[in-house]
Design brief:
By secondary structure, the chain is α/β, with parallel strands linked by helices. It is built from 10 helices and 9 strands. The chain has one domain: Alpha/Beta hydrolase fold, catalytic domain (Rossmann fold).
Length: about 280
């Protein structure tokens, strides 16, 4: 299905109810930049994004504000700041909390706080983020690489999301460092596991030098909770050998709250950091 974009160049192809053996079927939107021409030999990096219904169209987006990822990428690529990039928007569903909660620390002995956090939101539904990642890496990505002119290599494959989508993006990169070259974690929802979750990620970070990790947070609303946890994560990154501005970047945005309005406003920062050398 082709969907017109009224505000910028490019086109969206929607795969309705994309099937999976691991998770329930869901819509997947593929945004193709203006320079895309069927049959051309040109190939593109790919950015996989969670909460796909919030990315392109305010009529679908939570709160009526979309990320404007299409406008942001079109403007940045026109200025030569990032390469033209294909975006894969994976829609969420009623299992969002269960698909985005990092599963290994959730099920480990020390994960009681995470289990209670998820139980409060999903009742008896178990964490299924390992299945969600299996869907991404063994079903969706192979399809995208067959059907579209991608650059499938790790250093041309990125993943990004906000809040719980930020956590699952980091979990994806740490679980599949051979697949994803960079993760964008906007307003990562650290309170889902507090210090325990931060420390888990410190133990599974890939070695620096081959990946990029982006984090940010505001200081209003829910985002006001994040700074101590992010500071702890930054400390672990430094100890692991990551260098700020080179293979990791953390930004604080004073005045920013926890919503698509604020993520949209600063989207150029993670895009330039992750994609600039792609």
């Amino acid at each position: 299905m082709l969907l017109p974009l009224s505000d910028c160049s490019g086109v969206i192809q929607r795969h309705v109810a994309f099937p999976s053996n691991f998770v329930p079927a869901r819509n997947v939107d593929i945004w193709l930049p203006e320079g895309y021409t069927p049959g051309s030999s040109k190939r593109y990096p790919v950015l996989y994004m969670h909460d796909g219904q919030n990315l392109f169209d305010p009529s679908y987006a939570f709160g009526g504000v979309d990320w404007g990822i299409d406008e942001a990428l079109s403007a940045l690529s026109a200025e030569g700041l990032v390469p033209e990039t294909i975006v894969v928007g994976i829609w969420n569903n009623e299992n969002r909390w269960c698909e985005y909660m990092p599963q290994i620390p959730w099920q480990a002995e020390g994960g009681g706080r995470m289990r209670q956090f998820l139980k409060d939101r999903c009742s008896s539904m178990p964490c299924i983020s390992d299945n969600y990642l299996q869907f991404l890496v063994s079903e969706l990505k192979p399809f995208i690489d067959r059907a579209y002119p991608t650059l499938p290599e790790r250093d041309r494959t990125f993943i990004m999301g906000s809040s719980m989508g930020g956590l699952i993006s980091l979990y994806a990169l740490c679980s599949y460092p051979q697949v994803f070259g960079g993760a964008g974690c906007l307003s990562a929802h650290w309170p889902a596991g507090e210090e325990y979750l931060v420390d888990y990620f410190s133990s599974v970070l890939p070695a620096p030098g081959h990946h990029k990790l982006y984090f940010d947070f505001g200081d209003q609303g829910m985002d006001a909770l994040y700074e101590p946890y992010q500071n702890r994560m930054d400390g672990w990154l430094k100890k692991a050998g990551y260098s700020q501005g080179k293979d990791c970047l953390t930004r604080k945005f004073p005045g920013a709250d926890h919503s698509e309005t604020y993520w949209r406003a600063r989207l150029d920062v993670p895009l330039k950091f992750l994609l600039r050398s792609a």
